[in-house]
Amino acid sequence: MFEKLLLAVTITFSLNFFFQVRVPEQHNSSTAYGPQPEQPVTILVTKSKK
Asked: How far apart are CA 13 and CA 20, in angstroms?
C-alpha cells in the first residue's frame, strides 16, 4: 500500500516538473521572428448531412 502511494506521489511530482520546465529561449530567435500577434482560436464544426 505504501509503495503504491509513493509511486503515485513520485509520478505526480515528475509530471508537474516536466510540464513546468520550459526550453530556454535563444537570444536571436525572438528578434528574428518578432512578436507574434495573438489571434483568437477558431473551432470549425461541420454537421454531417443525413
From this structure: 11
